Amino acid sequence: MASPPATSKTTNLEGYNTTKFLAASTKLLFRLTLLVALVLSFFFTFNNRPVSNGTTGSHRVLTTTHLSYAFYGSAASWEKEVRRSSTPRRVNGFSVLVTGAGGFVGTHCSLALKKRGDGVLGLDNFNSYYDPSLKRARQKLLKQHEIFIVEGDLNDGVLLSKLFDIVPFTHVLHLAAQAGVRYAMQNPQSYVRSNIAGFVNLLEVAKTADPQPSIVWASSSSVYGLNTENPFSESHRTDQPASLYAATKKAGEEIAHVYNHIYGLAITGLRFFTVYGPWGRPDMAYFFFTKDILLGKPINVYRTHDGKEVARDFTYIDDVVKGCLGAVDTVEKSTGKGGKKQAPAQLRIYNLGNTSPVSVDKLVSILETLLKVKAKKHIIKMPRNGDVPFTHANVSLAYKDFGYKPVTDLSTGLKKFVKWYVSYNGIKPRVRKGITGSN
Ligand SMILES: O=C(O)[C@H]1O[C@H](OP(=O)(O)OP(=O)(O)OC[C@H]2O[C@@H](n3ccc(=O)[nH]c3=O)[C@H](O)[C@@H]2O)[C@H](O)[C@@H](O)[C@H]1O
């Protein structure tokens, strides 16, 4: 008797096993997927934390936010909180989405808007570019003033659309960004993700929102780059950036032009000049100089390549806040509807500086006086890391259009910063020896 060909028998046998195996595997895979989905949604729902990798981490935050949006999207309490926070309390008050509300300028602007009766909803991804505990402390401060911050990323289009579905924002004050001039050499992609992709994403959502909001956003003095005309005016060259940070801010200005031109979004860009003050950013020189001087650590003070002192038009936070609110109050309504432009819309750009540059050496000597501690200064040549030798703002345009007039000199502003710094860090002043302690 001819036995069936071995191959055929084997094939049949294997076929049977394969089918059975496949069915079992599919079931297992299905169950596993279900389990993973359940665990993930539980994790992200109850542990909706930002990325801690020193970048804006938009990719992971994107996933987190989608999942938490899915959870919160059905949670009436979340929507209620969003509505409550963004509802104005004064007649004809604005409803403002403040991006980067957990940041330095974002926190101060949110408080000022709320104080005068506008509705404010914050958005922040609480990334760990610098110590997120400071951002959390600012969030707590905002919460005390009934300002809610939605935890999410600019690149999360679903979340942004959801917010615009819930709230008819009149304005967006867009302050979320990857800041810092020198860090751009370490983590260039984070600048592209936040300052370019994130900005485009926000404008994409804003263009189709009904009503279209008016937009005020933070550009930077760094766009003047290698410009040598002094003081810097808005009409000067901005096509020679010295850092990737500056290049992404300049790109933002061009992107704003496009969305204004095609979709009728009214957009105002503000070029901030080295903003400092209480609740400031620990990555900025005045902040870490204070910390290091108090700790007795050396600080690097830069000199230009031809040996000159470097200088900045340091601008105090309260002055900048007044400028931001002035811009919000004078930005016109956007003219688009249904994603289409109906008429020409306003497009503006302004310097918000102090009009009075001060050298970094002088900054250090003011800090020494305030802290009553001598700094251990290392004078070094400015590394080629994106820094420019000086900045100096001409603010006549902002003065003309919304009365912007900075009134705080560096000594006065730093005094307020130091007062906040020692109190925030629980440092006890020592009368004779100076203020010492650690943080
Ligand atoms: O106006 C802006 O658009 C930018 O302002 C800010 O950048 P900068 O003006 O560079 O401020 P900041 O780093 O505090 O350095 C201050 C001075 O200290 C010098 N500097 C710095 C570090 C150091 O170790 N030594 C030193 O001398 C340094 O050479 C400089 O002269 C914001 O960070 C940036 O996000 C952006 O908003």
Automatic annotation (TrEMBL):
Source superkingdom: Eukaryota
First-level EC class: isomerase
Enzyme Commission number, as recorded: 5.1.3.6
Keywords for the protein's UniProt record, in alphabetical order: Isomerase, Membrane, NAD, Transmembrane, Transmembrane helix
Annotated membrane topology: Multi-pass membrane protein
Domain (NAD-dependent epimerase/dehydratase) ranges: 96-333
Coiled coil (UniProt feature): none
Gene3D superfamilies: NAD(P)-binding Rossmann-like Domain (3.40.50.720), UDP-galactose 4-epimerase, domain 1 (3.90.25.10)
Catalytic activity: UDP-alpha-D-glucuronate = UDP-alpha-D-galacturonate
Entry GO CC: Golgi cisterna membrane
Gene Ontology molecular function: UDP-glucuronate 4-epimerase activity
Transmembrane segments: 28-46
Localization, UniProt: Golgi apparatus, Golgi stack membrane
UniProt cross-references to PANTHER family, sorted A to Z: EPIMERASE-RELATED (PTHR43574)
Family from the record: Belongs to the NAD(P)-dependent epimerase/dehydratase family.
Subunit record text: Homodimer.
Name listed for the protein in its UniProt record: UDP-glucuronate 4-epimerase
Organism: Mikania micrantha (bitter vine)
UniProt lineage: Eukaryota, Viridiplantae, Streptophyta, Embryophyta, Tracheophyta
